[in-house]
Amino acid sequence: MRILIVEDEENLALPLAAILKKNNIMADVVYDGYGGLMQGRKDFYDVIVLDIMLPEMDGLTILKTLRNEGVNTPILLLTALGEVEDRVKGLELGADDYLTKPFDTKELIARIKALSRRTTQTLTENVITIKNVTLNTTNASLEISGESEALTKKESDLLELLMRNKDKTLSKDYILDKIWGLDSIAIDNSVEIYIHYLRKKLKAKKAMVKIVTNRGIGYTLKEEEDVK
């Protein structure tokens, strides 16, 4: 899991990031509102922890801007004790949860995990179809033009991630985090190996999708006619 912390108090943000890392949650930290908005726009994070009182741009403005731009990443607001109006306004603007300062780190971690699970649970559709390729995520079964192709669990998880993010470029680090997890001992070229496996299986059955390598950036699943 990877989260974004937007918090201007360095003596709070850095120790918090360290504690989260020990709980297998990788955290990027931004200390000002403008930087928080720029980073929050990235389709990368499972949860954003957002302080309301920030330099350059306040947290509620960031929240409103992200939601207006269609960014649906779960957002947990950090508010000052007693600032009821800020909490109410934040929820009205699209915040998913809030926590008042000072807070217990165990509670924060529990809320972050709950928001992450809620996001996962919204992906209730267990059958994904793109062109002549159909993946059933429940039993890791793949059909291409009606013909079955066996997949391992890791292959299925990787193909699901690519299919759900069609036309988006996913970095190797992002894929490692999502499929293998931060506590994994996966070797550095695990992603390349499984991309190779999937490409062979897609090509063998003449799938109308292709996994494209963007050198130095990551991998993208595209429909064949979109591949130049």
Please, could you describe this protein's structure?
With 228 residues, the chain is of the alpha/beta class. It folds into 2 domains: 2-121, 3-Layer(aba) Sandwich (Rossmann fold); 127-226, Winged helix-like DNA-binding domain superfamily/Winged helix DNA-binding domain (Arc Repressor Mutant, subunit A, Orthogonal Bundle). It has 8 helices and 11 strands. The protein has a 5-stranded parallel β-sheet, with helices on both faces. It is elongated. The protein starts with a strand and ends in a 5-residue tail after the last strand. The model has no long low-confidence stretch (mean pLDDT 87).
Helical proportion, percent range: 40-55%
CATH top level assignment of the largest domain: Alpha Beta
Element pattern in H and E: EHEHEHEHEHEEEEHHHEE
Count helical runs: 8
Q: Structural class from helices and strands? A: alpha/beta
Global outline: elongated
**CATH architecture classification name of the largest domain:** 3-Layer(aba) Sandwich
For the residues shown, what is the average pLDDT? 87
Strand content: 15-25%
Number of strands: 11
Low-confidence stretches: none
How widely separated are the two ends?
33 Å
In CATH terms, what is the fold-level topology of the largest domain? Answer: Rossmann fold
Biggest pleated-sheet summary? 5 strands, parallel
State the domain count. 2
CATH superfamily of the largest domain: Response regulator
Rg, please?
20 Å
- Across the major sheet, the strand order is 2-1-3-4-5
